[in-house]
Amino acid sequence: MRSAHRKSDPARMAALLDMGFEPSRPGPERIEDSILHSGDHKLVIDGRAMSTRVAVAAIHPSRYLLEEATGRAFVEMDRLIALLNRFDAGSAVGVLNAEGRLARPPPELRLLLDRSAAVHRATGGAFDVTVQPLVDLLKAADGSPDPVAWRDTLETVGAEALSVSSARVAFRRDGMGITLDGIAKGYIVDAMAAVLEASGIDRFLIDAGGDIRASGLREDDLPWVIAVRDPRRRGILSSPLRVMSGAVATSGGYEARFDPDGSWHHIVSSRTGRSAEDVLSVTVTGPTAFASDALATAVLLMSPREGVRFIDSLPGFECMVIDADGHPSLSAGLKG
Fold first, then answer.
1. Where are the domains of the chain?
2. How far apart are CA 313 and CA 69, in angstroms?
3. For residue range 223-277, what is the model confidence (pLDDT) as tens digits?
4. Which of the listed CATH numbers 3.40.190.10, 3.60.130.10, 3.10.520.10, 3.40.50.920 matches domain 223-336?
């Protein structure tokens, strides 16, 4: 979905840019185009989408293949945004939220909802895509919702009231809605990675505002270095992550606060109706960006000890949890 293909609507774009996904515009720009000492080409393409910066760095002997594959990766990103953007009334998610049902849902949405349900079950309900009405209420009230409206809205929330099948997706309660902000960006990053891999590119880094997928080695034949943001000081933590294959995702309430002190933000528990208070940020590493993204969101709503214990129970995943005092807790693998 690119701007050249559809007429601009300022009000609609304001909503898209506010907190959700917007298509990349202007088009992605070439940041680096170089020949390495090995003779391989390195191409870095940078664009703006999903309310953040999206960058793809890739290395391959063929510059033509790099150009073609990275271009198709961004096209795939825009295609998925057009399906999953809840701020677009014409998207699959937009229609579902407006009408309470969606006949013949696109397979991408159905797959993502099935995966969301699996994470919901695995996390004991901490991850829940049906919190959208609560998020909208808190945002509109600047973090000070009317108690009655807050309780009534909380009654509409619950993944158990979301019905998903190949024939239709439907809500079983009035006033329901979904937000895929806690999983869709990772899913889109994985889809972009699949485009590169299908083209034979196995050395790349995709970074979508902290949702990251890496493969192979960078130009100096070392693992890719991932800096993790310090949620209190707005800088980066002193110990970066080094990744050769897999994903990294960081979740934190500091990105979209609804009140000055950050007590209310866009990551809300479907069980309590409140935002995370004990944890400032969670970084999860794992094999895929969608799983790391969703798990980071869920662990943010747990206590630091509970979150680390949960990640330690999942083979292939590690985490760093930074509590409200700025103290980090590490999973067993990261301690090593």
1. 1-85+181-217, 92-171, 223-336
2. 37
3. 999 988 877 766 666 678 999 999 999 988 666 666 556 566 578 888 888 888 8
4. 3.10.520.10
Distance CA 131, CA 331 (A): 28
Beta-ladder partners of 246 = 214
Helix (H, G, I), strand (E, B) or coil at 6: coil
Determine contact, residues 2/78, Cβ cutoff 8 Å. yes
Q: Where are the beta strands (DSSP E) in 16-89?
A: 29-35, 41-49, 52-60
- The per-residue DSSP string of 259-280 comes to STTSSSBS-B-TTTS-B--SEE
How many Cα atoms within 13 Å fall on the side-chain side of residue 250?
A: 23
pLDDT band (50, 70, 90) for residue 8: very low
Pairing verdict, β 52-60 and 162-164: unpaired
User: Which pLDDT belongs to residue 15?
Assistant: 41
Judge if pTM exceeds 0.85. yes
Q: Say how many C-beta atoms besides its own lie within 10 A of residue 64's C-beta.
A: 9
The CATH architecture of the domain made up of 92-171 is Orthogonal Bundle (1.10)
Query: How far apart, in Å, are the Cα atoms of 324 and each of 55, 175, 228, 232, 262?
Result: 30, 33, 17, 9, 11
CA atoms within 13 A on the CB side of 278: 13
Residue 51 is classified by DSSP as: T
What's the rounded Cα separation, in Å, for the pair 254 and 215? 29
Task: Please report how the helices 184-198 and 289-300 are oriented relative to each other, as an axis angle in degrees rounded to 10.
Answer: 160
